[in-house]
Amino acid sequence: MALKKLTLPENVCIAEYVWLDGFYKLRSKARTLDEVPNSPDDLPEWNYDGSSTGQAPGTDSEVILRPQAIYKDPFRGGPHILVMCDTYNPQGLPLMTNQRHDCAIVMQKGKDLLPWFGCEQEYFLIDNATGRPLGFPAEGYPAPQGPYYCGAGAGKIFGRDVAEEHYIACLYAGIKMSGINAEVAPGQWEFQIGPAVGMEEGDMMWMARYILERVTENYEMTVSYDAKPEKGKLPLEQIQPQD
C-alpha cells in the first residue's frame, strides 16, 4: 500500500488503544501523540462510547481507557505503538468486564515471587466465503485427524501464511511468543506465549489475539476461538498451560 511509504513528521507517534468490550471482544482506535512514550505512564487516558460496546447505557455512555502495556506496532511500523488498556467508568471504578484490574491486585501482592506463566492458544481460521474452517470441504467433513498436526504440504495444512505472518508480527511487537504449530484439524493452529512474569502473560495473550484478528483482515478470514466451530467430531479448542 503506497500510504505505508509516506514519511510522517518527526516526533509524531500513532498510538492504537486496544481494549475488551462488553462481550470480551477486542476493539481499538488510534490517536496522534506529539512524542514517543517510554512507558504506559507517559500516555494519556482516553474515552469512548460504551453504549456502542455493550458497556454503558446511552444516557451515560462515557468509558475511560487507562493504558497498561505498550507494544511496537507491526502494521504501521516504528515509532508507532499498540497500547493495551483496561476500562473504567468516569468515577474511576473498573467495569464489570475489567477482570484485569482484580488480577493486577493479586499479582502485585505476589510480585516478589516472580510468578511465571505460559499459555497455549488454539484457534480455527474461518473462510468468510463458506463460513467453515479453512480446508473443510463444501459439504461433509474432512478426513479424520492424523495428517494435520504439525504437518506439511498441500491438502494437510491450511492457513500457514496467516499463522506465519501473525508469528512474525507478534515477535516484532515484543510479545514473548515462544512458538506456533498446526493443530489436529484443517485450518486449526496454535501459538504459545511465555514464559512471562505476572501481568505480562495476560496482556500479551490479548494483544496477540488482537494482532491475529488484524492479520486475518487481509485474508478474508475470521478467527474462531470456539471449542467446536462445526458440529461433528472435531478437537476441542482451548487455552491451556504449557508443559
TrEMBL record:
Localization annotation: Cytoplasm
Domain of life: Eukaryota
Enzyme nomenclature, EC number: 6.3.1.2
Record's compositionally biased regions (Polar residues): 49-58
Record field: transmembrane: none
Cellular component per GO, a single term: cytoplasm
Keyword ATP-binding among record annotations: yes
SMART domains, sorted: Gln-synt_C
Keywords from the UniProt entry: ATP-binding, Cytoplasm, Ligase, Nucleotide-binding
Keyword Oxidoreductase applies: no
All copies of domain GS beta-grasp, residue ranges: 10-92
Record domain GS catalytic: where: 99-243
Gene Ontology molecular function, alphabetical: ATP binding; glutamine synthetase activity
InterPro entries listed in its UniProt record: Gln_synt_N, Gln_synt_N_sf, Gln_synth/guanido_kin_cat_dom, Gln_synth_cat_dom, Gln_synth_N_conserv_site, Glutamine_Synthetase
Family matches, as Gene3D superfamilies: Glutamine synthetase, N-terminal domain, Glutamine synthetase/guanido kinase, catalytic domain
Region annotation (Disordered) ranges: 34-59
GO BP, one annotated term: glutamine biosynthetic process
Family classification: Belongs to the glutamine synthetase family.
Protein's name in the database: glutamine synthetase
